[in-house]
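Re: the 255-residue chain
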Amino acid sequence: MTRVPRLLVAYVQRFLLLWLAYRSFAYTLVANQAVTPLIGLAVWSAALPAANLSTYYVALLFTRLVTVSYENHTFSSRIYNGELADDLLRPHAVVLAPLGENLAIRVWHLAIGLPALVAVWLVAPVRLTPPDVLLALPALVGAAALQFLFTFTLALSAFWTERAHGVVGIGGTLVFLLGGEAAPVPLLPEAIRPIGEALPFRAMHGFPAEVASGLLAPGEVLVGYGWQALWLVIFGLAAALVWRGGVRRYTAVGG
């Protein structure tokens, strides 16, 4: 067990250096991640100036930068190219490599996107308080883990179809529509708000931003953490089951 953290750190270091060569492409990825929160900031700040949604969308931008997951590009491609056969021969869990690359990409996103965050902070009426920020940190960690499990599970569809990018794209659309990006979940109509709060998509993006911006009462924060923990367990089990089924199929057809 002590080898796992060391191996993960080694993979993170390796992919940090690898992505140094792709840093110009990383700028494009960061810009793509920033577009939605910045548009939401402009639209909702004009529509509801008294709601302090500037803080929410700045927090959402930060959340997006540190929870990005591109396993449909990084891991699904290894399945399509037959490189997974080499991964299966390594004396450790295969997931360590894609997880290490995921963490390295997030570090690059945060480093590149930090100037944009600072610039928005300077021009927008952002009001963050230390208690809210501290309360949001576990939610941010949970969102990062859940986003990886969600994307990784969908990316494993590459074992059965050549359209893994489309499968992950559908998942990304659901996160956009129901995860607090198109509209903050607390602003949804009362009839559908409980549904939005219970779905996993809010736990991946909107929930940490809601906590950090002080949009939730203490009881609502606890309920949000409960939903996030539940979905972490569900997607953790789903990833394990889909992985087992996919590897059996991959081995059966000869890799």
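The two ends are 29 Å apart (CA to CA).
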